[in-house]
Amino acid sequence: MAEQDAIRRYVDEVTAEPEAIERARAHALELGADPISAAIGAQIAIVSAATDALNIVEIGTGAGVSGLWLLHGSPRATLTTIDVEPEHLAAARSAFADAKIPPARARFITGRAADVLPRMNEASYDIVLVDADPEGVIEYVEHGLRLVRPGGTVLVPRVLGGGAVADPVRRDPQTSAYRSLIQETQSSPAVLGALSIVGEGLLQLTTVRE
């Protein structure tokens, strides 16, 4: 366990973060928006770049850190990002402007994801990132899998819950939701799933092409 913790710390320390994202992170921490780690940011940027993503949905804008990482990986992509907190969306808009992201590449939606997602076009997106309301994560992932095109990917950061999912004694709703999500998707024939233990953990689910 100590060795794994040391590896995680090392990865966090050596991951380089663009200056604009560093500034967005500092603002997020001031707001209490709890941004993803740089290590996870780099991983989602790699997924965005490797898939040459053009259309991305983000559930849980925060102050813009994860969205900036996704667009950093794919400079041609357009991001639709959803958050229930207007203050967070305002901070994200500011962060995107600071990073010189053209307004046409980002669409900000204020509202509950459960209300917004059913109105979006299915099988139309390359990536859906789910980073909001842990207790509702299974519902959001189900929506996300409908929204991505065949071969598209759903990303779920923080899925290890700070290590809580590996502790069988933990039965709180958040931990149980993440644990159920991991177990159900790992055995599903509809997706290819991979679980990274770097940072807060990242679940990657790519839909199987028929």
- Could you say what the CATH topology is called? Rossmann fold
Radius of gyration: 16 Å
Which parts are unreliable, with pLDDT below 50 for 5 consecutive residues or more?
none
CATH architecture designation: 3-Layer(aba) Sandwich
Distance between the terminal alpha carbons, to the nearest Å? 40 Å
Derived structural class? alpha/beta
Quick one: overall form? globular
Q: What is the fourth-level CATH superfamily?
A: Vaccinia Virus protein VP39
Strand content: 15-25%
Mean pLDDT: 92
How many E strands? 7
| Strand ordering within the main sheet | 3-2-1-4-5-7-6
Number of domains: 1
Note down, in words, how this protein is organized.
By secondary structure, this protein is an alpha/beta fold. It has a single domain, classed as Vaccinia Virus protein VP39 (Rossmann fold, 3-Layer(aba) Sandwich), CATH 3.40.50. It has helices spanning 2-14, 19-31, 38-50, 65-73, 86-98, 113-116, 137-147, 173-186, and strands at 55-59, 78-83, 106-110, 125-130, 148-157, 191-196, 202-207. The chain has a seven-stranded mixed sheet, sandwiched between helices. Helix 7 links the parallel strand 4 (125-130) and strand 5. The model has no long low-confidence stretch (mean pLDDT 92).
Task: Provide tags for this entry.
7 strands; 43% helix; 21% strand; alpha/beta; seven-stranded mixed beta sheet; Rossmann fold; 210 residues
